[in-house]
Design brief:
318 residues; Rossmann fold; Dihydrodipicolinate Reductase, domain 2; 2 domains; eight-stranded mixed beta sheet; 9 helices; 30% strand; globular
Length: 318
């Protein structure tokens, strides 16, 4: 059976873990692209050690796609490069999985970013290719709601709180940075958990200061039912380095990362009633992608970006 061929753009950071998960899920990582000959050499060595990579490294994205003809391109480059790399992959006839956010370049206006995202979604439709967003907690939302239903007997959810904190890594306080980095994850949970609901923008409150960015708003359904949402993101300068906390009404779920027996990242979902072992959420997203299931479709990615940018604009207005 022919293995699906995956090329990664930006395999030095999170992309190297994507490569490992693609391999563990049965795909072939055939190539990657980096920014320089030096970075390509270092990344190749890392990938060889991590999962036995035997493909080629490139500094030119379009050359990589011409030579390798991958089935899937996994875009893990910096956000300002996403639009160009996604466009190049779609034009080369590849399916695309793109790290969040789909488009973000501080040199562009919010309107231009949103228009670019919509154009990419349309290009994917025109080409008949899949374009999806790496926002793995949308996959997590399914597991969160299963746990909630098991312990709360499907009682109506009226409150959702998501809290993500990640290391500052020596960087100074910047609430915009932390919101752009972590906010899309929390938005993806809201969109996955409450399909059909929209943001009541009149209810929006924001607090962006120092290392923290927080947004509070109501989601409203067509039948007027509401869910009060609080999305909190923070860069941490102390231990523990990461916090991943979600709550639906009074039911809390903490996600802890650890290495499984094969040394791959995995997760524990910790609730007041039980602890459940799970593959890493990103691995589950890649598994679903290979099976043809969309966690965050191109349209959902555009909606996610729209919400992220509108909250950011409100925070800047004060």
């Amino acid at each position: 059976m022919t293995r699906v061929r995956v090329a990664i753009i930006g395999a030095r950071g999170i992309g190297r873990h994507h490569g490992n998960w693609w391999t563990l899920e049965g795909a072939e990582v055939c190539a990657f692209a980096g920014t320089s000959a030096e970075s390509v050499a270092g990344t190749r060595e890392t990938l060889q050690t991590l999962f036995g990579f035997r493909g080629a490294g490139y500094v030119d994205v379009r050359e990589m796609m011409r030579r390798e003809s991958p089935d899937i391109v996994d875009v893990c480059s910096p956000p300002a490069c996403h639009a160009d790399h996604v466009r190049a992959a779609l034009e080369a006839g590849c399916d695309v999985l793109c790290e969040k956010p789909l488009v973000y370049d501080p040199q562009m206006t919010p309107k231009a970013m949103l228009e670019t995202a919509r154009a990419l979604a349309q290009l994917a439709r025109d080409k008949g290719r899949r374009l999806e967003l790496c926002a793995q907690y949308a996959v997590g939302a399914r597991h969160f709601l299963e746990l909630y239903a098991a312990h709360r007997k499907n009682a109506p959810i009226t409150r959702y709180m998501g809290r993500l904190e990640a290391p500052a890594r020596g960087r100074g306080p910047d609430p915009v940075r932390v919101w752009v980095d972590l906010g899309p994850h929390l938005i993806s949970v809201a969109l996955a958990a409450f399909p059909g609901a929209t943001v009541d923008w009149q209810s929006l409150q924001t607090r962006f200061a120092g290392y923290e960015a927080e947004a509070m708003f109501d989601l409203i359904f067509p039948d007027a039912r509401r869910v009060a949402c609080t999305l909190f993101t923070r860069n941490r300068t102390e231990d523990p380095p990461n916090i991943r906390h979600f709550a639906f009404n009074d039911f809390s779920i903490d996600v802890e990362g650890h290495a499984d027996a094969q040394g791959a990242f995995a997760a524990r979902l910790i609730t007041p009633g039980e602890t459940r072992e799970s593959p890493d959420m990103m691995r589950l997203l890649i598994r679903d992608y290979l099976r043809g299931a969309a966690a965050v479709s191109a349209n959902d990615a555009v909606t996610n970006l729209d919400i992220m940018l509108r909250i950011l604009a409100a925070a800047r207005r004060g």
